Amino acid sequence: MLLIPCPWCGPRDEIEFHYGGQAHVAYPEDPAALSDEEWARYLFFRDNPKGRFAERWSHSAGCRRWFNVVRDTATNEIHAVYRIGEPRPVIA
Amino acid sequence: MAERRNADRRSADRRSPLAGFAARFETASAGGALRLAEIPFLTQLNLRVDAKSPAAERIGRALGTTLPVEPGSAVRSGDLTVLWLGPDEWLVLGPDEGEAEIGAGGAGLRDRLVEAAGSADGHVSVVDVSAQRTTLVLAGARARDVLAHGCALDLHPRVFGPGRCAQTLLARAQVVLVARETDEFWVLCRSSFAGYVAEWLLDAAAEYVT
Ligand SMILES: [Zn+2]
Question: What Pfam families does the record point to (chain B) (predicted)?
Fold first, then answer.
């Protein structure tokens, strides 16, 4: 079980959260201008690194806010949590 | 026909989700180590507003307290309690206003807050959610131990003492937990699974109430 530190509520059990996939995937400025391939790329293609990954989580059984987490996909170590709108922290 | 329907509606009694548990709560409370009871029909308002807006300030004046902005904090003002639910969201608890007040307009808590919100600078919502949850009070020296059977939060008084609240899971059910006094908690849970939570609490309490 992961202990995830919600940036509002503090550390809570993983079961209080929902996973939201890769963070910082911006909605296209002008979706109508995209080709089918570009649109599919936006919809379906995500990074799948072994290592640090910035991803979205929602504290669905708590404060119900979305926030971002930098988690190591190999070790599950959480390197940072930050609120929506805040830049991805630089981790040494 | 329409007249008859209205008459039926008038004669329908309010029934709290845990009305059927009163006797079992009383038995569990008889030993003195624990007190378990339902507080039915509290007025509950979900409030969403930017904490830094003039509207929030006016609502604060109407409540008699500024809205708590520290995560997980609860403040009391007279017979009202204001719980932090999120950075722009609060739950205001007040006494039962009876059936007559619902939607009647005028002197009710909701109407007072709507009036205070004014025609708003920015977005404000005040929604009556009184029927969404019912409230259980769990008090006594062993109250913490009972909750700890199904709640992962650190409930030590140093961390979760009076003035703290949390939305979390109790026995897998979503609840709002409020520390009222050192050994007194309120557990707000959805009406639809209040029966499950009550059964679970009675079971968890069994070893303390012989
Ligand atoms: Zn949270």
Answer: SoxG (PF04268)
Looking at the partner chain, which of B72, B169, B174 has a beta carbon nearest the beta carbon of A9?
B72
Nearest to B168 among A16, A64, A65 (CB): A16
Q: Which residues contact A64 (CB under 8 A, 6 or more apart)?
A: A58, B85, B86, B89, B167
Torsion of CA A44, A46, A48, A51, to 10 degrees: -160
Nearest to B86 among A8, A10, A16 (CB): A8
Q: B163 — phi, psi (to 5°)?
A: 95, 0
β-sheet with B133-139: strand ranges across: B35-39, B133-139, B184-190, B173-181, B165-170
Q: How many angstroms separate the CA atoms of B189 and B4, rounded?
A: 35
Model pTM score:
0.91
CA of A54 to the centre of ligand 1 (A): 18
| CA-CA-CA-CA torsion sign (A58, A60, A61, A63) | positive
Closest-CA residue of B relative to A3 is B152
Task: Give the E-state strand segments of A1-92 in sequence order.
Answer: 3-6, 10-13, 18-22, 52-58, 66-72, 78-83
Per-residue model confidence as pLDDT tens digits over B95-122: 998 765 555 555 789 999 999 998 766 7
Q: Is B2 helix (H, G, I), strand (E, B) or coil?
A: helix
- d(CA A65, ligand 1 centre) in Å: 6
Question: Residue B195 pLDDT > 50, yes or no?
Answer: yes
pLDDT digits (tens, 9 = 90+) for A39-68: 999 999 999 999 999 999 999 999 999 999
Q: 3-state SS of chain A: helix, strand, coil percent to 5?
A: 15, 35, 50
Residue B99: its pLDDT value, please?
62
Q: Interface pTM (ipTM) of the complex?
A: 0.90
Chain A: residue nearest B173 by CA?
Answer: A61
Phi, psi of B155 (to 5 degrees): -100, 10
